[in-house]
């Protein structure tokens, strides 16, 4: 896949293509930025471009080397991601073992570590030695949402390539061209930082179901319907949606923000655009301070979830607060 097929990230693409053009590719890179903003796709394209036999600063997508990367069977490309919650020292040792063999081609070997900020301390220290003294010519790409949690010594030995959230309008245009309905597209775009994250979310069977449930609960809570709490918990955890409560609270946050957008006449920013009629009739039932406090409830519930609070209790407390 050529660099031009990656949506956004013009700075990152320019830095990498310049390095290819000038033959100044570094031994290690740190792709740092929010999840779903295209780091993995860019890393694979960069690896393709390094191996590509036709183009100097891009991936042609057609030569044998490019096709091997595309099909996930290039012998000189190694992908790694956390096993469970972290990347273990054994995984780094295995990487070192693979790299002790000579490259099959004339190019350096490439390894991509996804979730590099999830390395254990031992794994990070082991990688540090490997970064300093690889046994064969190598290009490492570390992908991280939170680069500050990496060892400072690893940060200093890698070239940082920053990734930023892709502009929502650009993502909406791409999704519209792919035939995604606008209400679903707006919701996905508001919950992710890049087109890859959007597509991933839209492919989940539970995503549309969760959106419908949030709308149902949001409307019931405005109607002071105390049955909402009892039925919500049951429905969520019976259908398996309970695993995605983080997204539920994020959607609620967007819903309350939409009420504020309506009050401040920023209709173009409304996410649940298909609910404009309902929003227009109910936005004035609460004042700005109340909608803001509801947004804070949603954010607080997400924090509790991440601190391993009981999921069902989190949801029930949240819905009860909305009804008071």
From TrEMBL:
Domain of life of the native organism: Bacteria
GO molecular function: 3'-5' exonuclease activity; DNA-directed DNA polymerase activity
BP GO annotations: DNA-templated DNA replication
InterPro entries registered for this protein in UniProt: DNA_pol_HolB, DNA_Rep/Repair_Clamp_Loader, P-loop_NTPase
Any one Pfam family match given in the protein's UniProt record, by short name: DNA_pol3_delta2
NCBIfam families according to UniProt: holB
Protein known as: DNA polymerase III subunit delta
Originating organism: Paenibacillus albidus
């Amino acid at each position: 896949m050529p660099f031009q097929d990656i949506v956004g990230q013009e700075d990152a693409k320019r830095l990498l293509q310049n390095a290819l053009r000038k033959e100044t590719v570094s031994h290690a890179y740190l792709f740092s930025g929010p999840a779903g903003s295209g780091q993995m796709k860019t890393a694979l394209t960069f690896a393709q471009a390094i191996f590509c036999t036709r183009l100097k600063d891009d991936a042609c997508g057609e030569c044998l080397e490019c096709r091997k990367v595309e099909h996930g069977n290039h012998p000189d490309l190694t992908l790694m991601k956390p096993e469970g919650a972290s990347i273990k020292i054994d995984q780094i040792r295995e990487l070192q073992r693979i790299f002790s063999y000579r490259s099959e081609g004339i190019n350096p070997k490439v390894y991509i570590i996804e979730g590099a900020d999830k390395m254990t301390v031992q794994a990070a220290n082991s990688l540090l030695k490997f970064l300093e003294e690889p046994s064969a010519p190598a290009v490492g790409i570390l992908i991280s949402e939170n680069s500050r949690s990496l060892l400072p010594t690893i940060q200093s030995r890698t070239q940082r390539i920053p990734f930023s959230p892709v502009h929502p309008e650009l993502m909406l245009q791409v999704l519209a061209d792919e035939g995604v309905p606008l209400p679903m597209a707006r919701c996905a775009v508001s919950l992710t930082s890049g087109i890859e994250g959007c597509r991933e979310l839209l492919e989940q069977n539970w995503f549309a179901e969760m959106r419908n449930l949030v709308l149902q609960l949001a409307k019931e809570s405005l109607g002071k319907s105390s049955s909402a709490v009892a039925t919500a918990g049951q429905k969520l955890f019976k259908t398996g949606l309970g695993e995605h409560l983080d997204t539920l609270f994020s959607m609620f946050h967007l819903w309350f923000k939409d009420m504020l957008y309506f009050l401040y006449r920023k209709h173009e920013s409304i996410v649940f655009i298909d609910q404009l009629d309902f929003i227009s009739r109910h936005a004035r039932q609460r004042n700005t301070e109340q909608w803001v406090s509801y947004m804070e409830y949603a954010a607080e519930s997400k924090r509790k979830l991440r601190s391993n609070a009981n999921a069902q209790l989190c949801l029930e407390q949240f819905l009860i607060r909305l009804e008071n």
